[in-house]
Design brief:
- It holds the Pfam family HTH_18.
- This is Helix-turn-helix domain-containing protein.
- GO terms for molecular function: DNA-binding transcription factor activity; sequence-specific DNA binding.
- Keywords: DNA-binding, Transcription, Transcription regulation.
- The protein is of the alpha+beta class.
- The chain folds into three domains: 156 residues, no CATH class; 117 residues, no CATH class; 102 residues, Arc Repressor Mutant, subunit A (Orthogonal Bundle), CATH 1.10.10.
- It contains 19 helices and five strands.
- A hairpin with a 5-residue loop joins strand 2 and strand 3.
- The longest helix has 24 residues.
- The protein starts with a helix and ends in a 5-residue tail after the last helix.
């Protein structure tokens, strides 16, 4: 009866947390466990011999947290003289760069990095504290004599190389901090100039700097926080470069929306790089036009948000200036009006779509911010001396 209850609780935990939970009594069971969860011979904690040796030498009042060279963990403990294993699980997520570091550090050349990453994704990502909580709850339910257990991480299963390296090179830590500060300063300066290639290079260096003192791997929350820190740095750099606040907010908000619910660590890093590019491109565009700051800001808004329903009232309210002042500057510097400039932008964007896509005229009209396709055709013909259909036939090679 007790074994049946224990089995039910094991299955309940498997289903609730999508985690492996095993009861092992024989070497054959240990071998099956290792075969199911092991990918490389360096993972000694998964070998049948190691598992049975642990079973014979464990303290019954201790929960052991074991971690292999790939930072894959499992909890091991005894209940009624039977060995129980909770896991494997991964406390930290690994990017491709993390994976390459792990394989290089352990001189593993016969394991493909993509296969390694797919292997790690087989296991749930939970913290060690959560795993201990699960194991403790299980023991409280199934051990009538439970009065608490020690938590132990056996040193002979830990990878001590990073700690020893840090201890031996402690004097380099200050130099590392100085290097990171220099890289952050260079990153900031590159962004203010709109140099995306150099900025991305320094961003990569900054991320490499922390690996000296950081355990390999990360969590989604840590990467979201890192992205938020970069976002703040970019906002300050963009303000210094003269980028309008509404543009800064637009780019920043886009990144926030992309990362806040993202569950793929690589995509969070990609979104961070994309944000750097967006800020740099906006700043470069701002610096390229030799006009006043007001006109540069207006041009940027019209050329990037032409799909929206833009009115003069909306434009001036967004820029916090009067209509008469904006109209005066447009006539003085561009010899046109904001409305005419917007129409030219929309027609130019429509030309690009007519040349490269098979969208209908109605779809293209809506894509450039004009809901009425008849008005769009009239506007297009006035600017280009031909209809959209005629333009497409002339410039789109896929149209017969």
């Amino acid at each position: 009866m007790k074994n049946e209850l224990t089995d039910n609780n094991l299955q309940l935990i498997r289903e609730l947390y999508n985690i492996g939970f095993y009861r092992i009594n024989t070497k054959e069971e240990a071998a099956r466990f290792g075969k199911k969860n092991m990918i490389h011979r360096v993972q000694l904690i998964f070998s049948a011999d190691a598992i049975m040796t642990m079973k014979d030498n464990m303290d019954a009042n201790t929960i052991y947290v074991l971690t292999d060279v790939f930072n894959i963990s499992m909890l091991v403990f005894l209940l009624d003289d039977e060995l129980h294993i909770l896991g494997p699980f991964t406390p930290l997520l690994h990017t491709k760069q993390d994976a390459l570091r792990v394989l290089e550090q352990n001189n593993i050349k016969d394991l493909n990095v993509n296969i390694y990453l797919r292997y790690r994704n087989l296991f749930p990502t939970i913290s060690e504290d959560m795993a201990v909580h699960i194991a403790t709850s299980f023991l409280k339910t199934n051990d009538s004599e439970y009065s608490g257990r020690r938590i132990k991480k056996p040193s002979f299963f830990e990878d001590e190389s990073q700690f020893l390296f840090f201890e031996e090179d402690r004097e380099n830590f200050v130099n590392l901090l100085q290097l990171r500060y220099d890289n952050e300063k260079s990153f900031f300066n590159c962004v203010t100039k709109g140099d995306s290639e150099a900025a991305l290079n320094y961003l990569s260096k900054m991320q490499q700097d922390v690996s000296y003192i950081k355990r390999i791997g990360s969590t989604l929350e840590n990467e979201r926080i890192g992205c938020a820190i970069t976002r703040t740095t970019l906002r300050i750099a963009a303000l210094k470069a003269g980028l309008p606040v509404y543009v800064i907010d637009k780019i920043s908000s886009k990144n926030t929306k992309l990362t806040i619910k993202e569950t793929d660590i690589e995509k969070i890093l990609d979104h961070k790089k994309e944000m750097v590019k967006d800020f740099c491109e906006a700043i470069m565009q701002l610096n390229t036009n030799k006009h006043s700051a007001v006109i540069n800001n207006a041009i940027y808004y019209l050329e990037n948000y032409y799909q929206d329903d833009i009115t003069l009232d909306l434009l001036t309210a967004t820029m916090s200036i009067s209509k008469s002042y904006l109209l005066t500057l447009f006539r003085k510097e561009l010899n046109t009006t904001p409305g005419n400039y917007l129409r030219k932008v929309r027609v130019t964007k429509a030309c690009q779509l007519l040349e490269s896509s098979q969208k209908s005229i109605q779809q293209i009209s809506e894509s450039v911010g004009i809901a009425d396709s008849n008005y769009f055709v009239k506007l297009f013909k006035k600017e280009m001396d031909m209809t959209p259909s005629q333009y497409r036939k002339k410039h789109n090679s896929t149209v017969g």
